[in-house]
Amino acid sequence: MIPETTLAFSGTLHAQVKRHLFPRDGLEAAAILICTRTPGPRRRFLVREIICVPYAACKRRERDAITWPGEYLEQAIDLAESTASVMILIHSHPGGLFGFSDADDESDRKVIPSLFHAFGSLHGSAIMTADGAIRARLYDPSFQARAVDLVTVAGDDLCYWREDEASFTGSEDRPVAFTSGMTAELGRLSAAVIGASGTGSVVGEQLARLGFGRVFVADFDRLEWKNLNRILNSKRADADANRLKVEAFAEAVAAYRGEGVAIPVPASIATRDAVLAAAQSDVVFCCVDTLEARQIADLIGAAFLLPLFDVGVVIPVRKKGGAFAIADVCGRIDYVQPGGSTLQDRGVYTPESLRGEYLRKVAPDAHQQELDAGYLKGLVEEAPAVITLNMRAASACVNEFISRAFPFRLESNRLYARTQFSLAACEEEHFSEDVFNRAPNRLLARGDAEPLLGLPALKAPTR
């Protein structure tokens, strides 16, 4: 079952909270999480800011109790009220109790009503144990509590703590990669695939057969005869009917998984409907051949705290005598964690390349003039490549997700923020997250604030 409520952290903010809550003195510590929300219907709460309660400010800090002053609540209310954010009070359990104690219940009865007196219709509390695991619950104004179904962290690894798998002694062990346990776990997650062509159809097929509970696929394009050599499950009849790629994909998945697993989104990812669909997922796979779509995927990952896996293939050519020759056959997989380096930080797209792509589309003559004048740095053409290259890259992309959600690598996943391979040179290179410069990201955990993603074109329609 797909969780109804989720509390989502970026890896950097989760690490920050953990460092503060466990200062290695064996005593409880506290912090306040300021959370935005994703657009509905699914309720995902995104940790945007953290207010750490100083240890010295606490009236009492013991192994199983803590008392801290209300001034930090006032500070949090000032931050949260203007954006109608949700406040979650979190504290540590150094003794290892993975649940709410009687003292925690009593504390909530005293403190949570004051939050509702200030503003809002939903606030909550949470606890963390020394391994970083979190359980959380939300209250409505009548003080009815409901456990948060899933807590996620998108960092170097992808962490999931489920309420229905938790006990007072801790959460269940994670399933082992490539087992039926992994399949069962994936059945409770949703994925969004941007692009349903060469690599996208292969990525989507793998996700569906691996067992994802829901796979949203966004693409506005229609099938043609020229697509049949590289889009999985495409048929001659589909090309004759000029059928939507996402509809053909959903029909194929329904044949072996049943209805309701593949959700077709027949729209460009640069539209509001497609962005809203992606916001309902737990992970995003970007399989497109335009820079604009990659930019939107970048923004979606940041705004909704979603892990992003971007795959691209290219076949550069060179002049050899009077003819063209293959210079290389390449693939690239980037894993972008919220709060880490973005695709833009890594040079996958730049303002210049986005402008060049735009001019190619709307004013090809002007684009050629600028290219000739040296104003643009030039674009690497994303090839519609043969199916073998697409499958090689798509498989590496999905395995990159598995390696982070169900870790199996011998080295830290942090060393694999980017993977590039060359079939011509028979080489594969890996790049650490730490080699990329990271610019401040104003969209991080922006949530459902209008306009979506900070783009005027995605604002809510007026009634």
TrEMBL record:
Protein name stated in the entry:
JAB domain-containing protein similar to deubiquitination enzymes
Domain THIF-type NAD/FAD binding fold residue range list = 183-314
- Which residues belong to any copy of the JAB domain? 16-123
* Keyword Repressor set for record: no
Native species: Paralcaligenes ureilyticus
Gene Ontology MF, one: metallopeptidase activity
Entry's InterPro entries? Answer: JAB_dom_prok (IPR028090), ThiF_NAD_FAD-bd (IPR000594), Ubiquitin-activating_enz (IPR035985)
> Pfam families annotated for this entry?
Prok-JAB, ThiF
Glycoprotein listed as a keyword: no
An example of a Gene Ontology BP annotation on this entry?
proteolysis
Query: Keywords of this protein's UniProt record, alphabetized?
Result: Hydrolase, Metal-binding, Metalloprotease, Protease, Zinc
